[in-house]
Each structure stands twice: as structure tokens, then as C-alpha cells.
Amino acid sequence: MTEETANKLDINVTTEKVGPCRMKVTIEVPEETIKKVFSEQYSDLQKEVVLPGFRRGRAPRRLIQKRFGTEIEEQAKLKILSDCTQQALEEENLDTLGEPDIDHEKLELPEEGSFSYDIKVNIRPEIELPEIEGIEIEKPVHKMDENFVDNQLEQIQKRFAEWVDRDENEAIEKDDQIIADIEITPDGEEPVTAEDSELFVSSGQGFAGKVPVEDLDKLLEGKKIGDEAETETQVPEDFFNDQFKGKKCRVKIEIKEIKYQKMPDLNDEFAEKIGMESMDQLKERIIEYGKQDAERRTNSALHENVRNYLLENCDFELPEDIVSEQADSVMKREYSRLMMQGYGEEELKRQLEQIQARSKDNAKNMLKSVFIMNAIADKYDIKVTPEEINGYIAQTAAQQQRRPEKVREELAKDGSLQEFNMQAREQKCLEKIIEKANIKEVSPEENEDEKQQDSNQDDAE
């Protein structure tokens, strides 16, 4: 008889499916098994306890029971629940997710007879992977835009441009910066003033002080220093600033200064100022970056198509409570993101149902992807090596200029190390599928057209 067989408890186990990937496990512990556990608990304590008038290991059981009976009963209950639950899950070959739901405080051992209790567990979904060998996957090939270099040079110019005052007789032009005194008067209220406020003249809606103004650029067009501009604006009901939301406001702008961006000349002298040897080298770097960015977008789109193929062709159940937890987390992030973009609470409440629906769909796809990648990793024995993890830690430590040992400890503590492991393994899984697939190169436009057709077909169904 092996040690494992000797330690095995005599229990009766039945299972019942109570939901997607959710099992109810009923465990019956016979009276003899309960007595055996109690006897072991008393024996273990008897070897160690010292009572007045008795040497260690010599105290009678009745005195131990009188002195420590409550504690022994609690320890015996916890041991029975722990050992019997673990044994039951192993006997039934249940691949569980998370810990079983057991309310220890509500369960009590009977004075006599058998003890039965139920637990509910989430189990790992059974996944049948779709065909992987030789499947056709589209690869949308992105290329560097022909105006990429010029656009990047313009962005660099703006980054190093100086704000220069316009002459008093010069009118406002697009992209100018205005320094102005602003007076905002909501209907029936006292005016709110903001001196020396900055306004930026761009196409369409802009902000004057703390309120949005439609066609602000047209309102200020042709104005000079000392001029005034007035308009009315209806602030939306869902505006983030409670002081003005939903109100009609009179806006008065008194222009004090007008500044424009003076761009630096694009020459070798400018290139040297930003760390390049010449303009030619700067352009070469921009071209190199543009090609890398195009390649990154190509690979990202290819990986997305692989994920979509797996999600569309791999159907399985997910535990409802895990989906709900993930959906809540996704919804909170989405809610916070929209709040930061300026959406008001009223508008968010109106969109709540849509946000919840999107969050649930996103949560399901995220969880499905995790389980699918697990199945692919198991099928092809894909793992992240210790060297790859150490490389990630070393890179992070170098960026933060800190010791790798300390960085490893913090990354493990906040979950970043586990997240890197999952992401790195997912990339390996995707590359394995791409390696076995037939890759068809298409334009990004063709790829989007096909996605739209698939979406329309799904809607029709």
C-alpha cells in the first residue's frame, strides 16, 4: 500500500452540472472517517501538550478534550473540509478555476452520523481547437505613406517652434495662440471672468475659458489686438463642468496678444541641434522609423486576423461569474476612459446599456483568447523561457536605472511579471499558427472591406 493510498479518506462523491463550466460537488463523509480524523487530531495534540500533573505525552484524552475540545473540533472540521474537497476534485478529475466556494462558518460537524456538504466550482472549459495546419490568413501589408517624411518634419518643426508676437496691425490666422480676457455670462447669472486666458485657433469648435464655442476660428477670423468678439453658446447637458452644463451663455473675448509659431529652418544646423549630423541623416532616421511603423502595423493586423479566426472557429462555454467579473473590470476602465475624455455623467448613464453590452462582449473575447492560447501552448509545448523573463527584467531595470533583483521583486508583486509571461506566450502561439498557415498578402483596404462584409453578414444572421 502506497503512502497516498494510506492517506486516502473514505468519502462518497457525486457531481452535477449547474451552469456553463460550473459544477456542484456533493461530498459525504462517513462517521468512521470523521472519528478517524478526530482521533488523529487528539493523538497529535497529546504528543505535544503538557497539563499540570502529567508529563509530555501522558495527559489522558478526557482531560485534553475538556481543555481543548472546541479548538480540536474546529481544526478537525477544517481538515475534513480541506482534505475531502481536494480528494473529491482529484477523484472526479475536475480541472478547476480558482478556489471552491465553501462557507466554513456555516458548516458544522454532526455529533453522530455522516456529514454531507456541497461545494460549487468553476471548471476549465473543454476546448476543441479548429484546423490550424494550412489555413489561409490575410496579411494586410501597410506601407509608409508618401507624405510621411514631410509630415514628420513638420511635426518636428512645430515641436521646436517659438511663439512670437504678431504686430498690432496683423490679424489672427489659423493655429495662432491668443491671450485674452474672457467674460462668460450664463442666462440670469452673474458673469464669470478669466483674465489672460489662452485660446488656440484651430478649425471648428474651440474653448473660450471654460465653455465650448462652435466655429471659434470663424468668430476670431480677422480680429486684431484690442478687438472684441462676442457670441452665444449652448453648453451641452452632458458637459463635464457643472457650473455651465446645460446653460446658454454669452461669451465676450477681448484680445490682448496674438502669437504665431515661428518654425525653425530645416537645415543641417537645425539637425545638429536635435542630435543629428545632418538633414540627410535626420530624413534617413525618419524613413527607418516609417518603415518600422508600417511593419509593426502589418504584424499587428496579421495577429488580429489570427485571433479573429480562432475566436470565430472555436466555440465553448465560459463560467458566467468569471465573465461577469471581467466585464465589470472592462466596464470600469471604459467608464473612466470616457470620463477623462470629457463625457458627463448624464451622457454616460444614457450610454450605460451600450457600455455594458460592449464590456461583456470584450470580456468574453478576452477570456476566450486566454483559454485558446492555453490550449495552443499545451498542444505545441510553447513556454516562455527563464532567459526571456530575465531579459525582460534586465531591460526594465536598465530603463529605470535600478538593480534587477529589486525590479524582479516588484514586478512579481504587482503582477507585471505574470502579465509579461502571458503576453510573450501569446505572441509565440500566434507566430506558431502563422508559421503553419498559408499567408495571403492583401492591401489594408481589402482587409477592411472583408471585415465589413463579415460584419454585415453577422448582423443579417
Task: Describe, in short, the structure shown.
With 461 residues, this protein is of the alpha+beta class. Helices cover 50% and strands 20% of the residues. The protein folds into three domains: 3-123, Trigger factor ribosome-binding domain (Alpha-Beta Plaits); 162-262, Chitinase A, domain 3 (Roll); 271-316 and 382-460, no CATH class.
Structural class: alpha+beta
Oligomer status? single chain
Mean pLDDT reading: 87
Name the shape in a single word: elongated
Count the E strands. 13
- Give the proportion of residues in helices: 40-55%
What characterizes the major β-sheet?
5 strands, antiparallel
Q: Please, how many domains? A: 3
Instruction: Output the number of helix runs.
Output: 14
* Strand percent estimate: 15-25%
Radius of gyration: 34 Å
Outline the low-pLDDT stretches. 1-5
- State the end-to-end CA separation: 60 Å
* Topology as a string of helices (H) and strands (E): HEEHHEEEHEEEEEHEEHHHHHHHHEH
Keywords: Cell cycle, Cell division, Chaperone, Cytoplasm, Isomerase, Rotamase
Domain Trigger factor ribosome-binding bacterial: 12-156
Protein name: Trigger factor
InterPro entries: PPIase_dom_sf, Trig_fac, Trigger_fac_C, Trigger_fac_C_sf, Trigger_fac_ribosome-bd_bac, Trigger_fac_ribosome-bd_sf, Trigger_fact/SurA_dom_sf
